[in-house]
Input
Amino acid sequence: MSGLKDMNDKVYKIIGACIEVHKTLGPGYPVEFYQKALDIELASRELDYSARNRVEVQYKDTPIGEVTFDFIIEKKALLSIRCQDTLYDHEMQQVLRGLSLIDCEVGVLVNFGQAKIQYKRIIPGRMQHSNRNQPAYLRGGNTPHSKGRTRENNPII
Output
């Protein structure tokens, strides 16, 4: 149970850092400004993180490209930031797929583009979490729990 509490504490620190950046800068800047501000804020909160991580994507053991993730925090959480009108379902799906690529427990998707900050906490479903060590093409995806859920317990479509 303490593992879940520790993860929740980390997520609250991450969201708190994002709120502080949004409160200080406000909406309307390019996403790179928020990335740099989060570099400063995450370091000040003594969170171990790496920024702008590139990960290779493979199809049947053949590399087909790379994806870049904004922040990986303490090797347990993926933070993806946006600066736009709203958050879209396909962006939540991207975070969920990123979780399986880099073996993280939770994803946080944040939008700095509005007067009020938007964020979603994304947790992989049971099936996706248990099959994490298998290659993506062997995991399937037609089970009800394979797509994950948002913090509000809404299914990711």
Observations:
- The chain has a mean pLDDT of 84.
- The two ends are 29 Å apart (CA to CA).
- The chain has one domain: 2-150.
- Residues 2-150 form one domain.
